[in-house]
Specification:
The complex is a heterodimer of chains A (113) and B (115).
Chain A lengths: L3 E3 L3 E4 L5 E7 L5 E8 L3 E10 L2 E4 L6 E7 L2 E6 L8 E8 L8 E2 L3 E5 L1
Parallel strand pairs in A: 2-11
Antiparallel strand pairs in A: 1-3, 3-8, 4-5, 4-9, 5-6, 7-8, 9-10, 9-11
Chain B lengths: L3 E4 L2 E5 L5 E6 L4 E9 L6 E6 L5 E4 L2 E6 L4 E6 L8 E9 L9 E2 L3 E6 L1
Parallel strand pairs in B: 2-11
Antiparallel strand pairs in B: 1-3, 3-8, 4-5, 4-9, 6-7, 7-8, 9-10, 9-11
Classes of the chains: A mainly beta (113), B mainly beta (115).
């Protein structure tokens, strides 16, 4: 069965802290994605990776970075968390094109105080 | 710039009704249009998807209607059930020029089906 797991369901951090969100997939997918989900805005792509050590910016990369050292693991890093980064963060993985289906993890609700 | 506009934001129907969720897009390069369903506490999951060479696709009680000239597509849920209560997202993607297919999502519709 397809599975994408995220390290935390809920996370509370203080402004200025460095935050790591971890995502692991067990489907041997080449592509991995990080989104943030906010009410009324849908899902917005932060970064994606199409191979180990390869990454590309999505629509809203400012304030974030990513790391992919192993095929199954994709990390999202908030270098200095700010209150406007309070959100639900979703990780997804997919096969290479032309397949389009993305498989999502359950999400991490991050609160920055 | 929102490239996929979704409406309504919320929708309440009685059991057995046919909720309809609409999406409109601007980018004529989009060639893949999926719908995702999200239950509380879960990540979105692919429900049904369509490509622009067909005008309609059915999977069980779920139907996508696609109007290429109007740049619109919609999701219809036949004989809706309380278990269909969820948030629905439309999305769109151009033919990938690189190594990954990037999805642009609509803003979501929260559907409630009353028993």
């Amino acid at each position: 069965d397809v599975k994408v797991t995220q390290s935390s369901r809920y996370l509370v951090k203080r402004t200025g802290e460095k935050v790591f969100l971890e995502c692991v997939q067990d489907m041997d997918h080449e592509n991995m994605f990080w989104y943030r989900q906010d009410p009324g805005l849908g899902l917005r792509l932060i970064y994606f990776s199409y191979d180990v050590k390869m990454k590309e910016k999505g629509d809203i990369p400012e304030g974030y970075s990513v790391s992919r050292e192993k095929k199954e693991r994709f990390s999202l890093i908030l270098e200095s968390a700010s209150t406007n980064q309070t959100s639900m963060y979703l990780c997804a993985s997919s096969l290479p094109p032309p397949q389009g289906e993305q498989y999502f993890g359950p999400g991490t609700r991050l609160t920055v105080t | 710039q929102q490239q996929v506009k979704q409406s309504p934001q919320s929708l309440i129907v009685q059991k057995g009704g046919i909720p309809i969720i609409n999406c409109a897009y601007e980018n004529t390069a989009f060639d893949y249009f999926p719908w995702y369903q999200q239950f509380p506490g879960k990540g979105p999951a692919l429900l049904i998807a369509i490509r622009p060479d067909v005008s309609e696709k059915k999977e069980g009680r779920f139907t996508i209607s696609f109007n290429k000239s109007a740049k619109q597509f919609s999701l219809h849920i036949m004989d809706s059930q309380p278990g269909d209560s969820a948030t629905y997202f439309c999305a769109a993607s151009p033919f990938p020029s690189g190594s990954a297919r990037q999805l642009t999502f609509g803003s979501g519709t929260q559907l409630t089906v009353l028993p």
